[in-house]
Structures are given as C-alpha cells and as structure tokens.
Write a structure and sequence with these properties.
There is one protein chain. The protein is mostly helical and about 70 residues long. It has five helices and two strands, in the order E-H-H-H-H-E-H. Strands 1-2 form a two-stranded antiparallel sheet.
C-alpha cells in the first residue's frame, strides 16, 4: 500500500489556501511539507495537526492506494 495526498491538495485549492499557510496554521515543518509533496509517509501527529488546522477528518486529506496503482 502507498499513501497519496491528492485530497489534501484539492482541499487546499477549494479553501484557497497556500501550502505555506497550511504549514504555519498546522505548525508542521518544511520537511513534513516536502514529504507530503512526494506522497511519503508522515507521522500521525503531523496528520492530526493538519486535520485540526483544516477542521477535517483523515479521510479528507489522504488515501491509501495499492502499489500497482501507485506505480502505474
């Protein structure tokens, strides 16, 4: 399984929020933002901070996809 954050980027677009604003609002590091951009795993603590900042659930910012789909 792989993780994908396309839902997060769509949510930011819908909210007219930039990544730098999310970084500040959630209190996450630039490293976390870089890992998000690369669809890499981040800590549950960081996910919790992002969800709190955006007032949303986990299912609204990420999804797990099969490795076959991720490599296609």
């Amino acid at each position: 399984m792989a993780v994908q954050y396309n839902r997060l980027w769509k949510k930011l677009i819908d909210m007219k929020m930039k990544k730098t604003a999310l970084k500040s609002a959630a209190g996450v590091s630039a490293n976390v933002m870089a890992r998000l951009s690369k669809d890499e795993y981040i800590s549950l603590e960081s996910i919790e901070k992002i969800c709190a900042a955006l007032d949303c659930g986990v299912d609204e910012i990420l999804e797990f996809i099969s490795d076959d789909t991720a490599n296609a």
